[in-house]
């Protein structure tokens, strides 16, 4: 059961796609004050949610936000960050938070461009609108306190997820990417392969085959850009792709050897 944090935050969201809206709904429920900006016009959606929407980044930064939440896609991060007018920041120690599915890439990029007085928290909520639709209890929230001086603001932001019952996992960006390459990237790759094979339910599905069909269907709900980002911006992904290819060839060879034995 969730309860409201004792102190609320002013959170500005850059990028207001489905995942940002999913997070925003809970933040609003907890009483936080939100503003949003995005390359696409989401003013109607924001009006429905009671969030001020700004088409221009300059006017968005006129708000005195405690936190700037980056909810861009992996592939668009660099372009979006280049458009940020950091000189218009109102707070000396604004906390920047990203929620990308890779972690070393946004960490390294943001450390290069953020004002030195700004804080940086790299996070990965490992759930989304589908897996988190019935609540966030026990769902993992991975985070790395990359550069934190304003402990109060950082703690209040993390409390958003603690309050909802998330399993809080403190982990370095590098360790995250190494584990995610084997877990998330490999899962997406298998799902994409199954999609290319056009597998679908039949009248005689085993439980195992039903699991494969569900994996395919869950995977293709995510954009191709996300999948490409998981590969292009995680240095461990290429090795996992090679491991998958090698494992397939090994299994194939075992089958062929069995045929030759007969």
From TrEMBL:
It comes from the Eukaryota. One of its GO terms (molecular function) is prephenate dehydrogenase (NADP+) activity. GO terms for biological process: tyrosine biosynthetic process. The keyword Cytoplasm does not apply. Signal peptide: none annotated. InterPro entries: NAD(P)-bd_dom_sf (IPR036291), PDH_N (IPR046826), Prephen_DH (IPR003099), TYRAAT1/2 (IPR045011), TYRAAT2_C (IPR059064). This is Arogenate dehydrogenase 1, chloroplastic-like.
């Amino acid at each position: 059961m969730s309860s409201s944090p004792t102190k609320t935050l002013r959170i500005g969201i850059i990028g207001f796609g489905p995942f940002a809206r999913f997070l925003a709904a809970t933040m609003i429920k907890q009483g936080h004050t939100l503003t949003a900006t995005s390359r696409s016009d989401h003013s109607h959606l924001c009006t429905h949610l009671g969030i001020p929407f700004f088409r221009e980044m300059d006017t968005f930064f006129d708000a005195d936000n405690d936190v700037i939440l980056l909810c861009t896609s992996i592939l668009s991060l660099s372009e979006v960050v280049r458009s940020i007018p950091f000189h218009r920041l109102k707070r000396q120690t604004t906390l920047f938070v990203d929620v990308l599915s890779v972690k070393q890439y946004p960490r390294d990029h943001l450390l290069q461009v953020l004002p030195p007085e700004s804080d940086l928290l790299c996070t990965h909520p490992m759930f989304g609108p589908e897996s988190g639709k019935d609540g966030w209890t026990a769902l993992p929230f991975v985070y790395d306190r990359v550069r934190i001086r304003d402990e109060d603001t950082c703690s209040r932001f993390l409390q958003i997820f603690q309050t909802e019952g998330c399993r809080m996992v403190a982990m370095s960006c590098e360790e995250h990417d190494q584990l995610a390459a084997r877990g998330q990237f490999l899962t997406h790759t298998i799902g994409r392969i199954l999609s290319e094979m056009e597998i679908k339910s039949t009248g005689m599905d085993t439980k195992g085959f039903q699991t494969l069909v569900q994996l395919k269907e869950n995977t293709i709900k995510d954009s191709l850009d996300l999948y490409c980002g998981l590969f292009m911006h995680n240095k461990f992904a290429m090795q996992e792709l090679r491991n998958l290819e090698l494992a397939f060839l090994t299994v194939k060879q075992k089958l062929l050897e069995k045929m030759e034995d007969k």
